[in-house]
Amino acid sequence: MRRLLTAAVFVCPVVAGVAGATPYAQEFLATGIGARPLGMGGAYVALVDDASASYWNPAALPRSHGRQAIYMHSERFGQLINYDAGAVVLRARESASGARSAVGVGFLMVSIPDIKFNTTDPEELFQIESGLDGDFLTPDADNSQGNGKLDGPSERINFEKWAEFVEEVTDRQLGLFLSYGRTRVLHADVSAGASVKFVRKSVGDFSAWGIGLDLGALYELRRNWVFGANLQDITTTFLEWSNTPSGEREYITPTVKLGTAYTREIAAIRGSVTLVADLESRFEDEEGTTYRAGSITGDLRAGLEYWYRETLAFRFGTERLGADTNPFTGGAGLRINRFSFDYAYLNHSDLDDVHRISGGVLF
User: Fold this and answer.
1) N or C: which end of the chain has fewer CB within 10 A?
2) Which residues pair with 111 in a beta bridge?
């Protein structure tokens, strides 16, 4: 654990400084998999014990209770954005030394349908925009007609022609995680894992893809007190765009997530209470974050989970504790035999509130 965190301190700033972040390039990867963690503000690095460990912390894959599959869906901001995510973990295997290992696969996809793409065909543009003289029949001497720009207030648009030539496309962003985790790494109480991440973005005929690496670790200080770390995009993830005029490259710089989870059984309430907190640091300049140190910004996530007889759960949390914008989260969970159902709520001061539902099954 100590070696892993030391490497993160030295490697991440160097890589981030060389590459430089593309603003919001990683935003579609920031939500995560499963409604359970999202009901606690996304503080899950040290608590995760299910198939979603492929995303939250691959070192936790051996903690899963057998083979499991999880799926989540939500429609955000007035059904404008569709979000789907899921994961599968295979049964953990135990070696002669007592070490457990497991593999998992996770995915998440954000899609925005019905985006109108204007035509780039010169002949069609010539029929759509008049140019500065306002006349569709007479070409402008300054070549302002059909140049794909609104050059001034006198220029007219033929919306009937625009509707005839416009193309509706879907913006789709996909992340796929192939993960492995193992217990008793260097120490009896330390687990480690890694996820190879494949990223693809597409909108219309334009597309980009890239590969990244996430590293995770867990340290069980006590049976009920765990510390975790997830170093996402540790080598910086590059996305190469194709079919674009400039052949642009995007950079997803590293994100360091450090978390802790403390659980206590309380007989008086016939269940257990868990307190969780994650400190998330990003090597890029973002607005509205909990803290800022030069080009490094980050958020403090915190949450609480109460389980009644390991069957019914209630959750509360926040994604940005102490920030100016402090989104409140809440949720509930139900476990029945091999099945689990979870719900998460996120309030939003400017856009519609977000509701997320996920389900899981042991098989």
Assistant:
1) C
2) 82, 172
Rounded distance between C-alpha atoms, residue 252 and residue 24, angstroms: 8
Under 8 Å between Cβ of 98 and 79: no
Residue 338 and residue 67 in contact, taking contact as beta carbons nearer than 8 Å: no
Per-residue b/e over 51-73, b at no fewer than 16 CB within 10 Å? bbbbbbbbbbbbbbeeebbbbbe
User: Residue 215 in contact with residue 4, Cβ under 8 Å?
Assistant: yes
Residues contacting residue 85 through CB under 8 Å, at least 6 positions apart: 31, 32, 33, 34, 55, 71, 72, 106, 107, 108, 109, 358
The residues near 180 (Cβ < 8 Å, ≥ 6 apart) are 58, 61, 101, 102, 103, 104, 193, 194
Task: Give me the tens of pLDDT residue by residue for the chain, a chain 363 residues long.
Answer: 333 333 333 333 333 333 455 666 778 899 999 999 999 999 999 999 999 999 999 999 999 988 999 999 998 776 788 999 999 999 889 999 899 999 999 999 999 988 888 887 888 888 888 888 888 877 787 888 888 888 888 888 888 888 888 888 889 999 999 999 999 999 999 999 999 999 999 988 888 999 999 999 999 999 899 999 999 999 899 888 887 655 578 889 899 999 999 999 999 999 999 999 999 998 877 776 778 887 788 899 999 999 999 999 999 999 988 776 777 999 999 999 999 999 999 987 666 788 999 999 999
Contact between 186 and 197 under an 8 Å Cβ cutoff? The reply is no
- Give pTM, 2 decimals: 0.84
Q: How far apart, in whole angstroms, are the C-alpha atoms of residue 208 and residue 185?
A: 36
Report the distance separating Cα 107 and Cα 71, nearest Å: 10
> Which of helix, strand or coil describes residue 314?
strand
Instruction: Report d(CA 310, CA 107) in Å as an integer.
Output: 27
Measuring CA to CA, how many Å separate 360 from each of 7, 209, 298, 323? 35, 29, 31, 33
